[in-house]
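Form 12-C: Joint structure prediction
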Amino acid sequence: MDWSEILRFSRGPLFHLSLIIFIAGMTYRLLRIVLLGWERDRTKRQGSKLWGTILNYLRGLIILPFIPWVRRTFRNNALTFIAGGFFHLSLFVVLAFGAAHILVWQSLCGISWKPLPTPIVDWLAAVGIISLLVLLINRLTHPVLKLLTKLPIWINWTVVFLPFITGYIMTHHLWFRYEVIFSLHMISVCLLLIWIPLGRISHFLFYFFSKTIHGAQAGKRAVTP
Amino acid sequence: MKEKTIYEHLRDKGLSRRDFMKLCGTIAGMMGLEFSPPVKALGKLAHPTPAEVVARALTTKPKLPIIWLEFQDCAGCSEAISRSSSPSLAKLVLNDIAIEYHETLMAAGSQAEKAKEECMEKYRGKYVLVVEGSPTVADDGIYCVVAGKSNLDLLKEATAGAAAVIATGNCASFGGIPGANPNPTRACGVADLIKDKPVINIPGCPAIPEVTTGTILYFLIMGELPKTDHLLRPLTFYGHTIHDHCLRRPFYEAGKFAESFDDEGARKGYCLYKLGCKGPTTYNACAALKWEQGLSYPVQSGHPCLGCSEPHFWDGGGFYQGQSAALIPPESKTTAVAAGVGVAIGAALAGVNAAKKGRAKKALTSISAVGPGESGAKPISQSESKKEG
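Section 2 - Result
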């Protein structure tokens, strides 16, 4: 098998097709949810919707996750919270600030920015991989989670883990020839792109909708989101 | 009369024995011959040293006949060999170790054609055929014709009596530039056409002269072609990537990249990955052997590797585009169509959903006039959301 051909295919037509499926799928999902219907909020206006939204983002995404005692991180579900948090941070940094990924963004959207130093991205990638493994073990051993976990969750985990691990092996030039592991990385990324609109990983987009709506609702009622 | 051996030939030319042994050492080094010292405990017996192996071959074997054909090419590989700045070695190989018929260098004409035919007849079954440039198969090979014969006929004719075939340069190995998309002449590699003779590829644009001559010498000395990888490239020279031996590699590891050809990073010699270097996937000896007697090679001189020893290097999505970039970035039209399809299906299903919702609402109000109108929508939207993976 000629891996340079496979690499050309996976970087070219396969990635192209996956992107198209991803775009069509996400547009469909978005429209479908928006058109499900909106319940009219009849509450009397008591505060600012905008401030509620901003506050919700600050609490949920930007500041408070990093101040554990405020969110009571360690009290209820410490492992899920910490491993999940590190995983999401790692995913964001690797995707947005890895030098190789910036080249991908540049080829797709025409804009580029400064990457973070490779060692930082590298360590965070390792943290992401470890977090995913921890979450997997937790899911395999936790009595309640075991009951809740069905096939789509396993698919979710696999399609996220594969790009992570292949990417890590690739940047460290371990075990495989570069074109082989590069092809495997691209194929796993394509799998992920195709799977996203079909499964719950689509929360990468819908999260922001719910965060905004809940924030606005709370803001209108002048309560803490 | 018995043919003179190479050693006798060299002695006639005035080469001293000392120089001959030096030459043998150089050749052994160039061929990448390994020497394992005898270790009694491991059961390793004393082998002749590489230089002795070479010397034994040169003192017993006559010159190696070579026929060099050119098809769709720029003659750059011949140029690289004839102007290689290790002239002593390349010249030695081509003048004193091998007898050569070279179409371009002989300024082809009817005499040259005749010389080739005589050479092929005289050394039938013994000569090595070196092919430079890609054969073309479209329309029975009429797009590359020499002396009234199509390249396919010429190749077939010359291969018939060859002991081995060496395809030099990317064109002869994989189709090269003539084989680039859309490949109007259906150019292909020599190995795609020749199945009944041993074929070895020496890709590169041009092929590194020392690699071509090294492979010829290997065949002369060992009597067989060297071990190859899956693309038929000799492992001695194509066993590692440019990236493996790159002198800018530490900068890659540290994440220090040149952003343009004239920025501070470029001046400091940072890694050229972001400027489109194909080093990580390119197998060749540039970084180890270098060019111009070990003076430099592209990456050292500040230019990213083009990947010229790999198949389809011309179609690799731009020489200055980073290797991780998408080969086919989606155009705005494709994106719009994809989004349009999503919108159309979404809207259609939402319409069906709305109609269902309307019917359910009507049914509810006709049975009992309970609750506000919108409550009827809830069971449907809940069942919809449950379907998510």
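Section 3 - Comments
The longest helix of chain A spans residues 3-34. DSSP finds ten helices and no strands in chain A.
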